[in-house]
What we know:
Blueprint: E1 8-10, H1 26-34, E2 41-42, H2 68-80, E3 84-89, E4 106-107, E5 121-122, H3 125-145, E6 149-153, H4 159-164, H5 179-182, H6 184-196, E7 201-206, H7 217-230, E8 234-238, H8 246-249, H9 259-271, E9 275-277, H10 284-293, E10 298-301, H11 303-307, H12 311-315, H13 335-338, E11 366-370, H14 374-385, E12 389-393, H15 417-428, E13 431-433, E14 447-450, E15 454-456, E16 483-487, H16 491-500, E17 506-510, H17 522-535, E18 538-540, E19 543-549, E20 552-557, E21 560-564, E22 569-572, E23 576-578, H18 583-586, E24 592-594, H19 604-615
Helix pairs in contact: 1-2, 2-3, 3-6, 7-9, 14-15, 14-19, 16-17
Amino acid sequence: MLKLRNPFFFAPIKTGYGTGDGTVTERHIAFYRIRSADVGAVIPEPFYLHRGLRELPTQMGIDSDDKLPGLRRLVEAVHAEGALAVAHLNHPGRMANPKIPGNFFVSSTDKACENGGAAPERLDRKGMDEVVSLFAGAARRAEAAGFDAIELQLGHGYLLAQFLSPAVNDRTDEYGGPFENRARFPLEVFRAVRDAVGLPVIVRVSGSEMTPGGIEIAETVRLAAMLRDEGAEAVHVSAGTVCSTPPWFFQHMFIPKGKTWEMADRIAAEAGVRVIRVGRINTAEDVRSLMEKAPNDYIAVGRALVADPRFVAKAAGLLDEPYRPCLACAEGCLGGVKGGKGLQCLVNPQVGRDETPIAPAPVKRRYAVVGGGLAGMEAARVLRLRGHEVDLFEKDELGGQFLLAPLTPNKRPLAKLVPWYAGEMERLGVNVVRKEAKPDDLAGYDGVVLATGSRPKVPPIPGLKDYYGAEILLEENLPSGQNVLIIGGGLIGVDVATALIPRGNRITIVKRSTDFGEDMEAIAKALSLKMMRESGAVFSDRTHIRRIEGRTVYAEREGKEIVFEDVDVIVVSTGLESYRPLVDELEHRVPLYVIGDAREVGNAQDAIADAWLTCRNI
């Protein structure tokens, strides 16, 4: 029986902080220690059961006894903050990473995931026994390392879900066909783990795989009842599958919030089992409503605790500070891991650098920050936390170009970030000067941080006169029922298209290369392009605009002229260039630090991280 100080779990999230040998690193220790301060239990990232079953080259392992010293240190760090530690055991089956040398692939089937991956070997009885042995051995090591409980992964499209799912399991033996047969092997694994250790066992499931023919809630209720009868401590209710419905797996901002909570409600009511609710629990309102609705169940918080390690205490009213908002954007937490840099966060540049917190400045100075976008506000925030006096010059509204980001469909959660930063300016005592900074205004400061951002590039197209940039997203500029030509198919071009489509506009988007949305986060890109295709948007790649005459646009594609007629609105989104006023006037008069897009054009995460890294050291 778990005895937690409160009902909150830190949900398992892949970090990618390893060095390739599967052992625990200092980055792991620092990351989990700081996030153990307020929760009842911490579930670290999934541990691999065999070196040939890795999802990431840098994943932590629990496959051999040489991992035990590091795992004990990890458990001790969690315990030192008052939380329990739960070992999450998962076998990916056919979802093992095909890019990792030495990986092997097994499943209930011999068919690869429909979205790509390696073709697996269909498990026979000998192979199934080997899987059971891997789970039981890993459970015994978890107990030896001091973990307080085990969590088994039976969802998200991994091996045990590959047996459960009627969309995947095509067997004709006693492990295929009816639900009781498909549940047989997962229950064998559960029993083996339960009998191998004296620890409580939690089971993670997908309430629904959210894919045609996949696991649905009615069968998950039946599975939960079986697990209850077998002695499961709780059922952790998520959704989706990493194979076919990753937006649900990652609880991305493009999907509706609360579906997993509804599934958990039904499982708790009909199966009579204690549940763990999870899935985009990232506001104080979410926390309060779930605590009031189900005071005897558990709540798992994932990415909100990445964005703000003290989110639970702040959201529950135990710590009187505003929490840094999780945007559910997956930019850093998914993009960083997939990119090989390890878990990061768009809004929190300290993620992955938890062992090096901001330190007070040895000498307090007076700084001016020029530009009130994300980089400028992060710079002002860090400088104030270090003890410096800060004046932030911004002639317009705080937030800069990021104010446009939430104006596209499905990106409304991004609107939480600028108000949080503006609140931090007030809370920390940053003096916001509402004017355009001139050289004389900046005399007398000990240093100036230039965060003036970037400006759109405008291609030299003959006849290009009347056009919009990203400012077309403002309500007063949005057209309806028009023929719109978007020149440039990167993030801004695709976002503009998705904002204009619901208003009945007909979209043509042109790009010199072939990869539309190439600079977008993967899930947002896939769903945005899908929306565009389904609306009938015209994609014209390898296209060069040559001239514009009235409502006719002449272009070239692979040496042939193409013509776009009856164009009502032109949007130009062909990139940005750094905007660095004042550099010539200031660089020899005062210590000058150029940050964010003003230094090098990037995305919001780049700008915030650059500000943090620069200002923690000046």
